[in-house]
Amino acid sequence: MPELRKDPIIGRWIIISTERAKRPSDFISPQRVTGSAACPFCNGNEWMTPPEIFAFRNENSIKDKEGWRVRVVPNKFPALRVEGNLDKKGIGIYDRMNGIGAHEVIIETPQHEVSISALTNKNIEEIILAYMYRMRDLKQDKRLNYGMLFKNVGISAGASLEHSHSQLIALPTVPKIAKEEMDGAKYFFDYRGRCIICDMVAQEREDGSRIIFETENFIAFAPYASRFPFETWIIPVFHQSHFEKMEERYAYELGKILKTVLTKLEKSLEDPPYNYMIHTAPFNYNDLEYYHWHIEIIPRMTRVAGFEWGTDFYINPVPPEDASAFLREIETDS
Amino acid sequence: MPELRKDPIIGRWIIISTERAKRPSDFISPQRVTGSAACPFCNGNEWMTPPEIFAFRNENSIKDKEGWRVRVVPNKFPALRVEGNLDKKGIGIYDRMNGIGAHEVIIETPQHEVSISALTNKNIEEIILAYMYRMRDLKQDKRLNYGMLFKNVGISAGASLEHSHSQLIALPTVPKIAKEEMDGAKYFFDYRGRCIICDMVAQEREDGSRIIFETENFIAFAPYASRFPFETWIIPVFHQSHFEKMEERYAYELGKILKTVLTKLEKSLEDPPYNYMIHTAPFNYNDLEYYHWHIEIIPRMTRVAGFEWGTDFYINPVPPEDASAFLREIETDS
What we know:
The structure is a homodimer. By secondary structure, the first copy, chain A, is α+β, with helices and mostly antiparallel strands. The first copy, chain A, has two domains: about 5-20 and about 30-175, HIT family, subunit A (2-Layer Sandwich); about 175-330, HIT-like (HIT family, subunit A), CATH 3.30.428.10. Chain A has six helices and 15 strands. In chain A, a hairpin with a 6-residue loop joins strand 1 (about 5) and strand 2 (about 15). The first copy, chain A, starts with a strand and ends in a 5-residue tail after the last helix. The interface between A and B is large, with 93 and 93 residues. Strand 2 of chain A pairs parallel with strand 15 (about 315) of chain B, so a sheet runs across the interface.
């Protein structure tokens, strides 16, 4: 059983993932990404993954067989386990609980595509809908308090399989960054009476210098305090605290702006390693006036070193205004 | 002039380091580490660095010439600038100030050694003393509030030169992690009346399962909530909030335990990339009963991916008790 442990000074949680336990020698050879040979995410290799949890399937196709378009399965090497109870406990000054949670993989296409940007808008719409449906389902489990949807592309961004996929980890406790965002946004709301992210969208639109792309209901811009070169956030212009509560009619448009932004990043930076994460409100909060879900995309072109680890201060060599001006000019089909 | 910008939601600062400004194409070729040919940190190449700020020198040797044992110079590509005023300003919901601060390099040996663990204990004592002297000096500058001493070893840990060196960045604002540590430790102190890190040392000593090495006045252990496999903290057993206030007589012993621990990590993980950071109290705080400086060493064997970036939750495949048992057994000369 994996274990969750809390740092007693700053309250950061970690997962001791015993199911993945390793000897020092396992760390010595460089990590590799599995290519198309024997890819467990490819059409026809459904037997290589645990049984599917959800899929968009062609009519008359059968669970765990070919004929799916987007498929969600449990991670074969999960960081957390679904079965069991939390067994929260203090050990002197330390706190721990069992590593209860869900760890799922969203396989984005049956073909061996390595980039989400190569997929059709219709396909990406179904990926977004799969994200929402899985979040709505996991939210029913009262042991779980937070769902993090994320994507790793490229070895240095933590990917171990190249076939286009995302992951969802649902946690029994609200993670530190989500708590900080809730607290920070609430503080602003208590003082000004407005959602800070709505204000941010308004200010970015008025200023214009950091905007990368806009659609009717979504905006993509380089955040004012970008940690990384070419960091990009995608935000709905309508106020909403929980991603999974988005009306389904927006999924196509969100997929489209996501594809446009990723295409711009891939073209300008020659297929960089990157991560994206959907920041959203915890499951057990009602609709919040003060918080606003969004997607953060971080190309991983710079190395994170001792200074950043010791301070959470980031050194970014590219002003977001320059990154944005550059990305705005990159042509895409949309 | 570099610029400091604050994330309006969670209060994280970033440095827009315009002096290092780059075009997208600069990110595309992989980074390389400069080896011994034309190493600006080697004996005889003193002209390749900016003029020295401090050095331990052999008698009768001359500033910026050979004859030094440990040498401190400004970083040639500094993230921050010493000259100027802060010019703090709000721009709508955003906050910024000028990137005032110091960015220094501590060159640890005149020979082209790539590992601090290859140096003599006497040499490492002088490195520790140089750290302390530079912190004491920078603290006099009332514009500066925090000094972060850190070391990057290996490309994936952010090093760009292999010659053994550390860095010191002094900041005009207390970084987020230091603030969180101060707040967390203060909260514990207000409730229990004791320093949380003193309590941690006591509990680790009683338990024993995470201890890696001990000397009379210092202890090295794998922290209970280790983010990374083989993460190791070195803590003075005496209570002290500010590293730079350490009595100089301890510098030799601290250097010795640092060397022992790094030797153990290098032997067991075959010279892993790593960072270490000295966590200490802000300059403008008096001696604190509730906070306790320490060194955090993080071997960089695992990749930080979307989940960690989105949550600050870490997945560690090696229980610290196992890491510690393994490192305890590794023989060193000390």
